[in-house]
């Protein structure tokens, strides 16, 4: 059957041009809606109950889909450094309504929420709410108490609450003994670099999320450097007390028997010894979480 | 035992939106068919032929009345083992091939596996579908489907066969084949009940015919009786249009084409007409006796009703 | 009787296969393959959970869709196309026809589910590098899905005996949706009083309960399913399906065809 060539050409031309036009038009719309979109997202996000009803019994699959959405949402904001995570908590809330036993959503999600911006959403109170929801739905999962304690300690600086969390967690059958140890540490020491290092190490070892793992690594090397510099400054102080002046360089301390060699930071770069006896890292950009050292002088 | 005994079978349909009005498709039908008989069920379209067959097959249920086939009530499924049915314009599962369809139907009719295989090949040959292979029925022409239809109607060697418009959709060769096939079935002693509106087929094949019109059986007659040997009319064709005037009172139904005249004369007047034509020097072409046909009977039965109705109305 | 019944069953299965119903398996495989990268990216340690959720939910949903789309035409198509004429002219009982259609569609769904299960287990093997004991529970979930198919086929068959395809589809889908709220419906009935309670309770029990047949979440979290639940679900699904099919037979026995 011979096709009418004219119709074919005209039809194809219309198809191509009008479709291209519609794409352009749509991009315009999306550009206009851009900043609006976030607000709209929050407004039109249905409740967990609604989504559960709409899932027609496939709610655990929906939970996985919402969890995926939450991770991608967090990841893209994290990458762009936008600092706005408005719908993270609603997404996580819906996810956990759909599948109350989706442990990772509580565990990883709450860390996403609690971390200070721009690293995380900077919403530790919401994070606490999420973990407590997790505990109610999964009372035998003692690791939630770890997460709760972590958030209370690191982001809310509520050491009493942290201690209570670790204590409660240690009482759950099957909890590992270090929970009790942590509780005792909290009670005794409050804010403490070693405790922080231990907490971050646990996060590093147990998390299943790459972003959190990287972040924990960063915290850990900052804490290591922090501890190193604290110790090095102690030794320069000792030198000052013995010789009445600050050491000129690391070799002075070595000769004095206070050091065995040139001290290296966790990246293998020698620490900088300043004339006033303080110690700094050579390249502060490698250490995002230095609190007491960095550009400012030592305390 | 009659092959088919219909006692007062009737069917009304509730029609209209509220299903309040009643339409009668079949008025109380009484009919007996003897074994080995070939019976033609004639009637115009919509007369009730197909309704009757659907009632007999259990496709629809009667409003009243009963019927038996080979002595068993039509509601008894077992009777269907000996019954074959070809519906009008048959529809088959178009995703099956002809052998698959026949095998399926044969199985449903209770044939054993061994018997089926052989018979299917035989039958496809017999209905002229030897080379269809595994072609799916959706690719069959109307004529081919009709042949499949006949095959499935007789595959299980039934004693009584019901055919609804068996010639429908067939070309002259096909019709000839079907006629032959029906004749073969007749010779085997099968009872055949077929409905049609083609009178020549009925005349050629049937022992008896029944005329049905507007749901009512108008009459039943023996076919041979219609072929009366005494022709009461004769058709005469001659050359000589000018002669017509001289013989007008003897002939009726005259047609003149050029110089050729065709007319009908009562057989009693035939000799007189021929004499007159000879006198007038007209040239005779042919002299043919006209038999009263089934068609006349058919038309009479179906027209009667109209006249009766007219009489009642006026 | 069994010869006719099995003939109709197998022919119904053959029709579904030739209607290319089984091509949905291609879609299923594509779905698993396409989501593999997403799953492995999102959360380490959660792959199995997501895969199980996706796999089981797909087996269930695909099957329900087929049950509805093919089921609505089981009887109505035969009436519409008049293919029943040459069936009923044979010693086939009307109830045999209905039963054969039911079993044929159910067979199609079971075969489909079995093939999907094989593909699903292969995917599991690839992802988790080996199966262990908990994976036996997955079969229980799939068994329950098949029980759900039993009920859905009966439902669509019932509608097919008296309703046109469009309405049958709407009714069947509605019952499927209502069925997923089975437990909620019963709870609502339990909480109401008087006439409402009786009506609601009757409705709750007439409507199918698919919620109790859904253990996807449970087995995804590697929790076991009790033997008692298996027993009673089997009983429920069996009795419900037979009852609904019986209703279909009753309607079809009385029906004047076109």
Indicate the CATH architecture of the largest domain in chain B.
3-Layer(aba) Sandwich
The strand line-up of the biggest sheet of chain A is 1-2
Tell me the name of the CATH class of the largest domain in chain B. Answer: Alpha Beta
Structural class by sheet pairing and helices of chain A: mainly alpha
**Low-pLDDT residue spans of chain B:** none
Under CATH, the topology of the largest domain in chain A can be stated as Serine Threonine Protein Phosphatase 5, Tetratricopeptide repeat
Number of domains of chain A: 3
Order of helices and strands of chain A: HHHHHHHHHHHHEE
* Helical amount of chain B: 25-40%
Low-confidence runs of chain A: 294-299
CATH class designation of the largest domain in chain A: Mainly Alpha
Please tell me about this protein's structure.
The complex is a heterotrimer of chains A (299), B (314) and C (258). Chain A folds into three domains: 1-36; 37-211, Serine Threonine Protein Phosphatase 5, Tetratricopeptide repeat (Alpha Horseshoe), CATH 1.25.40.10; 215-286. Chain A is built from twelve helices and two strands; from the N terminus they run ααααααααααααββ. Chain A has helices spanning 5-44, 48-54, 59-80, 88-98, 103-114, 124-137, 143-154, 159-171, 178-189, 193-206, 210-243, 250-255, and strands at residues 272-273, 279-280. The model of chain A is unreliable at 294-299 (pLDDT under 50). With 314 residues, chain B is an alpha/beta fold. Chain B folds into two domains: 4-223, 3-Layer(aba) Sandwich (Rossmann fold), CATH 3.40.50; 233-290, ACT domain (Alpha-Beta Plaits, 2-Layer Sandwich). In chain B, 34% of the residues lie in helices and 30% in strands. Chain B contains ten helices and 14 strands. Chain B has helices at 49-57, 98-108, 113-126, 142-154, 172-187, 199-205, 223-226, 244-247, 270-279, 294-313; strands at residues 4-15, 21-33, 38-42, 64-69, 72-73, 83-86, 160-164, 191-196, 208-213, 216-222, 233-239, 251-257, 260-266, 283-290. With 258 residues, chain C is mostly helical. Chain C has twelve helices and no strands. The chains are: A mainly alpha (299), B alpha/beta (314), C mainly alpha (258). Chains in contact: A-C, B-C. The interface between B and C is medium-sized, with 30 and 25 residues.
């Amino acid at each position: 059957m011979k096709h009418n060539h004219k119709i074919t050409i005209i039809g194809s031309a219309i198809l191509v041009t009008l479709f291209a036009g519609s794409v352009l038009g749509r991009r315009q719309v999306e550009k206009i809606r851009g900043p609006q979109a976030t607000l709209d997202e929050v407004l039109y996000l249905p409740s967990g109950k609604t989504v559960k009803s709409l899932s027609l019994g496939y709610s655990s699959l929906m939970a996985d889909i919402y969890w995926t959405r939450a991770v991608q949402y967090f990841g893209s904001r994290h990458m762009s450094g936008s600092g706005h995570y408005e719908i993270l908590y609603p997404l996580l809330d819906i996810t956990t309504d759909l599948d109350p036993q989706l442990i990772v959503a509580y565990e990883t999600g709450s860390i996403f929420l609690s971390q200070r911006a721009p690293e995380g959403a900077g919403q530790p109170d919401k994070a606490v709410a999420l973990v407590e929801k997790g505990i109610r739905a999964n009372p035998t999962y003692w690791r939630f108490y770890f997460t709760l304690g972590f958030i209370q300690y690191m982001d809310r600086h509520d050491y009493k609450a942290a201690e209570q969390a670790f204590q409660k967690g240690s009482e759950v059958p099957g909890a590992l003994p270090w929970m009790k140890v942590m509780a005792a540490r909290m009670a005794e020491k409050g804010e403490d670099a070693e405790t922080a290092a231990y907490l971050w190490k646990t996060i590093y070892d147990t998390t299943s999320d790459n972003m959190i793992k990287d972040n924990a690594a960063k915290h850990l090397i900052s804490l290591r450097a922090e501890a190193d510099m604290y110790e090095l400054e102690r030794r320069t102080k000792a030198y000052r007390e013995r010789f009445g002046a600050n050491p000129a360089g690391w070799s002075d301390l070595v000769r004095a028997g206070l050091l065995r060699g040139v001290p290296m930071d966790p990246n293998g770069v020698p620490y900088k010894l300043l004339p006033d006896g303080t110690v700094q890292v050579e390249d502060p950009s490698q250490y995002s979480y230095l609190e007491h050292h960095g550009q400012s002088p030592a305390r | 035992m009659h092959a088919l005994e219909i006692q007062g079978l009737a069917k009304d349909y509730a029609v209209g939106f509220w299903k309040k009005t009643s339409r009668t498709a079949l008025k109380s039908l009484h009919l007996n068919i003897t074994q080995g008989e070939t019976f033609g069920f004639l009637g115009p379209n919509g007369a009730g032929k197909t309704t009757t067959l659907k009632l007999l097959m259990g496709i629809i249920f009667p409003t009243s009345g009963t019927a038996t086939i080979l002595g068993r009530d039509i509601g008894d499924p077992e009777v269907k083992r000996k019954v074959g049915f070809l519906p009008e314009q048959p529809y088959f599962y178009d995703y099956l091939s002809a052998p698959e369809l026949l095998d399926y139907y044969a199985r449903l009719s209770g044939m054993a596996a061994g018997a089926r295989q052989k018979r299917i090949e035989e039958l496809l040959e017999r209905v002229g579908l030897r080379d269809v292979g595994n072609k799916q029925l959706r690719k069959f022409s109307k004529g081919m489907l009709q042949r499949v239809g006949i095959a499935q109607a007789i595959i299980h060697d039934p004693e009584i066969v019901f055919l609804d418009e068996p010639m429908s959709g067939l070309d002259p060769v096909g019709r000839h084949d079907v006629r032959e096939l029906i004749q073969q079935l007749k010779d085997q002693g099968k009872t055949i009940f077929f409905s049609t509106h083609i009178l020549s087929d009925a005349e050629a094949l049937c022992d008896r015919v029944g005329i049905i019109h507007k749901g009512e059986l108008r009459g039943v007659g023996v076919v041979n009786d219609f072929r009366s040997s005494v022709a009461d009319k004769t058709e005469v064709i001659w050359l000589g249009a000018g002669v017509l005037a001289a013989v007008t009172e003897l002939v009726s139904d005259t047609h003149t084409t050029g110089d050729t005249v065709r007319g009908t004369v009562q057989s009693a007047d035939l000799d007189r007409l021929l004499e007159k034509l000879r006198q007038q020097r007209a040239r005779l072409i042919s002299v043919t006796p006209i038999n009263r046909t089934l068609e006349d009977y058919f038309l009479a039965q179906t027209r009667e009703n109209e006249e009766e109705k007219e009489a009642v109305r006026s | 009787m069994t010869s006719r019944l099995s003939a109709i069953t197998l022919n119904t299965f053959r029709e579904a296969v030739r209607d290319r119903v089984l091509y949905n398996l291609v879609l299923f495989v594509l779905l698993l393959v396409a989501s593999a990268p997403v799953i492995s990216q999102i959360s380490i340690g959660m792959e199995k959970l997501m895969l199980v959720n996706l796999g089981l939910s797909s087996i269930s949903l695909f099957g329900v869709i087929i049950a509805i789309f093919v089921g609505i035409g089981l009887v109505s198509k035969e009436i519409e196309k008049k293919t029943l004429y040459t069936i009923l002219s044979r010693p086939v009982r009307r109830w045999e026809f209905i039963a054969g259609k039911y079993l044929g569609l159910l067979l199609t769904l079971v075969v489909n589910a079995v093939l999907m299960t094989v593909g699903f287990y292969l995917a599991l093997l690839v992802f988790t590098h080996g199966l262990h004991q908990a994976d036996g529970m997955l079969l229980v979930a799939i068994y329950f899905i098949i029980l759900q198919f039993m009920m859905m086929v009966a439902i669509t068959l019932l509608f097919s005996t008296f309703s046109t395809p469009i309405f049958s589809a709407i009714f069947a889908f509605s019952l499927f949706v209502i069925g997923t709220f089975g437990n909620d419906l019963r709870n609502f009935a339990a909480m109401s009083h008087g006439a409402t309670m009786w009506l609601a309770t009757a409705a709750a029990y007439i409507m199918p309960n698919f919620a109790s047949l859904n253990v996807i979440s449970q087995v995804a979290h590697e929790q076991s399913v009790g033997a008692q639940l298996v027993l009673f679900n089997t009983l429920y699904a069996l009795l419900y399906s037979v009852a609904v099919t019986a209703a279909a037979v009753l309607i079809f026995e009385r029906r004047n065809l076109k």
